[in-house]
Each structure stands twice: as C-alpha cells, then as structure tokens.
Amino acid sequence: MKLLISNDDGVNSLGIQTLANTLAVAGHEVTVVCPDRERSATGHGLTLHQPIRAEIIESVFHPTIKAWACDGTPSDCVKLALWALLESPPDMVLSGINRGANLGTEILYSGTVSAAMEGLIEGIPSIAFSLADFTYSDFQPAANFAKSLVAQLAVNPLSELMLLNVNVPPVAEKDIAGVLITRQGVRRYIDVFDRRVDPRGKTYYWLTGEVLEDIEPPMGLNLPQDIPIDVHVIRKNYISVTPLQYNFTYRQGLDELSQVKFDFP
User: Fold this and answer.
1) Which pTM was predicted?
2) Residue 220: C-alpha distances to residues 10, 81, 118, 250, 251 (Å)
3) Same domain, yes or no, for 117 and 177?
4) Are strands 126-131 and 66-70 parallel, antiparallel or unpaired?
5) Are 140 and 15 in contact (CB under 8 A)?
6) Distance between CA 216 and CA 183 in Å, rounded?
7) Rounded to whole angstroms, how far apart are CA atoms 194 and 207?
8) Sign of the CA dihedral 24, 30, 31, 36?
9) CA distance 239 to 186
10) Parent domain of 203
C-alpha cells in the first residue's frame, strides 16, 4: 500500500521512525512528512500567517522511504503532503507512534489525532497510533500491530470512511491482553499553572496537570453502553481501537432544538 505517515513528536522521535521503518520493511511504499520538532498538543491548528517550509530528510529512515521535515503543525504536514509534495494520493494516512496516550477528551488537543484527521477530511482512511506512556520506549509492539492492522485493512477495507484511534499499552508484546473496539471516554484533569520568574524578573506560567478521573461519556450520545471505553481497557493491557469522525454534530441537540422557536431580532 501507499502510505503517508506523520506525527506531532517530530522527525527525530523514535515512534515515527519505528512505525515508518517497520512498514517499509513489510513492503509498503512509505512517505513521511512530519514536523521538524515536537508540536504536541497543537490540535488541528494550521499555519496561515507565515510560509511553510519543508526540507528533504536523508539517513534518518529506511532507505526506501521518502521523507520531509516541515516547520508547520501536524495538520500542515499532512495537508502539504497531499496538495504539494505527493504525486498521487496515498491509500492511507497514518500518524504516530505518539509518545503518550491519546484517550478520551485528550484527542481534542492531540496533534497526532489531528494529523490523521486531516487525511480523513480529504477522504482517505486514516489511523492514529499512540503508546500509552511518556517514558516507555519500546515502540516495536505498537509498530507490529500497525503492520498487522494495515495488512488486514488492505485485504478487507472498511466499508465506511473513518479514523481509527489506536492506543497500545506500554508493556511487552507478550503481555498485551488483546485488542478491543472501544468508545471514547472522558478524561478530566487538574490543570495547574506553575507561576515562575525568568532571569529578567518577568513572570511566566507553565501549564502542568494530571489526570483527576476517567469517567463514562454522557448517556445522551446514543452510543452502545456495552462497548467499553478507551480509558478503561488500556489499564487492563488491551489495545484500544476507537472509530472517530470529524462531524461534531450533537444528535440529541438537534432533536431538542427542533422544538424551540427562535425569534429574530
């Protein structure tokens, strides 16, 4: 298959190198277009007020891989690849492997998921891969699952266009309990801004925070309650696969608002 791979951790991250090289060795035609530095938590931001530059990268990836490092956001990278760098569209857009989980409401901020979502917006099946820990450094089990999933989808493509958000537990391959289809949970944080003073006496703030709780999504989303949520299964060492779409329309909201008579002016 012809694969476009991006990420938000940058060109030097072990995650994207492991993913791209594993798929190239498996015989896929791989192109990498990713940020030239870490661009985590950029969401679906685009660069509009300055030029975007892309440099060809050599000696970082497998020799069969064409690679560019871009000074834009993850979404910039995929958009630039699809509209300027690639001669023809890829069969699939992949993003990752991210260092750290993208579970629950984290996907709203994730540059990893946004890069894959850019492919989906352009009508291309897409997958975001994340390793659910910031310190665990063995990306090979996640890359092996990516290789297996891509091969499976090449033979049996999904009938509906969607993004698969994949989170892999940070354990040895033999300790992965299996693969579960999940729905998106809700992850609440304690957001804390550390107040600091720079050497010139100027005050600045550094956003920190930790997970406060993982909870069930609201009942009104019309999601099957027998499907487990992503933030729970990852703790049991299962790979979580959540199908996503970019349409945020709230179905129950449509039903409720249809009963309201709005006056103007």
Assistant:
1) 0.89
2) 38, 38, 27, 9, 9
3) yes
4) unpaired
5) no
6) 10
7) 6
8) negative
9) 18
10) 186-215
Q: Please write down the HEC assignment for all residues of 75-95.
A: HHHHHHHHHHHCCCCCCEEEE
Predicted pLDDT of residue 89: 94
Report yes or no on 10 lying in a domain.
Answer: yes
**Residues 164 and 203 both lie in one domain:** no
Tokens of 162: 């969607």
pLDDT of residue 234: 93
Q: What is the block-wise mean pLDDT of the chain (265 residues), using blocks of 10 residues?
A: 95 96 97 88 78 91 95 93 95 95 88 94 96 94 97 93 96 96 80 82 78 56 77 94 88 82 80
262, part of any domain:
no
State the virtual CA torsion across 208, 210, 213, 215 in degrees, nearest 10: 60
Region of 202 (left: φ > 0; alpha: ψ -120 to 50; beta: rest) is: beta
Burial label, 63 (beta-carbon count in 10 A; 0-12, 13-18, 19+) = exposed
Smallest CA-to-CA distance from 78 within 50, 29, 113, 28 is with: 113
| pLDDT of res. 42 | 75
Give pLDDT tens digits for 207-254: 766 655 555 655 555 667 788 989 899 999 999 999 999 887 877 788
User: Could you give phi then psi for residue 204, rounded to 5 degrees?
Assistant: -140, 170
